[in-house]
């Protein structure tokens, strides 16, 4: 009897639970639920549509960006290659003739250059452009390989440009000298300086005054101007102070000229293997001079002073 009552109570509990669920379902706002569900579906649909649109837009934007980036990269790569090729292939060589020496070298185009004492020549290891260009400080004699399509240019520190195509010429452009000179042995050259152009023929010299910026052309003794490259010093009616300057460079000494007169003595002589004392003694025949050599002294940095010679003109 007690077991039967327990089963009845259990069934009644189940019926109450089912009835509560039925009442809860009846209380649900079906319209509101429908609206919520619809909004979720529409929101999800818009989200998917936006994603698809963005994907298509991204594809549209990425394509021209990829193309432009590829083109730009190609251009930069090509320019970089050119620049790298140019910088890699164009290197420069600098040659200096030590004081008291003469140095000969051959350029990439097989042109030959002689450098006088204390002079420096800078040139590319390969002539790649439409010009063969070198830079000179000091004095040099050039024997240029002929090539009418590729002019040969010499640039000096004071702004003078000597242009040649196949010729032999001398350029004297020491920075400390007041005058720059260009002398033509054979062929044709043009001198350019501050907007002025002068054409030269053999045995002519153009001198450029650095102070007045004036150019002057005249005939000259080509033998005297270029003899230095063969180890000779030739003076043909040369002012004494100019001759002493060339002698000092040849023998790497400092010659100090003390004038006691306004007379401008000129020298006519040829020197080859003579010692410096012998040269100075020979000069005494052409001009009333006396000379003395100062002792070399040691500087505070353990170097030695340059040999100095005093020359007096009576």
Note the beta-strand portion.
25-35%
Quaternary state reads: single chain
* N-end to C-end Cα span: 165 Å
Largest sheet: 13 strands, mixed
DSSP helix fraction? 25-40%
Query: What number is the mean pLDDT?
Result: 82
Could you give the count of β-strands?
18
- Return Rg in Å: 47 Å
Put simply, the count of helices is 5
Tell the overall outline.
elongated
Succession of helices and strands: HHEEEEEEEEEEEEEHEHEEHEE
Structural class: alpha+beta
Give the low-confidence spans: 57-77, 79-87
Write structural notes for this entry:
This protein has 314 residues and is α+β, with helices and mostly antiparallel strands. It is built from five helices and 18 strands. Strands 1, 2, 3, 4, 5, 6, 7, 8, 9, 10, 11, 12 and 13 form a 13-stranded mixed sheet that branches. A three-stranded mixed sheet has the order 15-18-17, covered by helices on one side. Strands 14-16 form a two-stranded antiparallel ribbon. The longest helix is centred in the N-terminal third of the chain and has 60 residues. The termini are far apart.
In short:
This protein has 314 residues and is an alpha+beta fold. It has helices spanning 2-27, 30-89, 222-226, 240-251, 276-286; strands at 92-96, 103-106, 112-115, 120-124, 132-143, 152-156, 161-164, 168-173, 179-186, 189-193, 196-200, 204-209, 215-219, 233-239, 254-259, 266-271, 289-293, 308-313. It contains five helices and 18 strands.
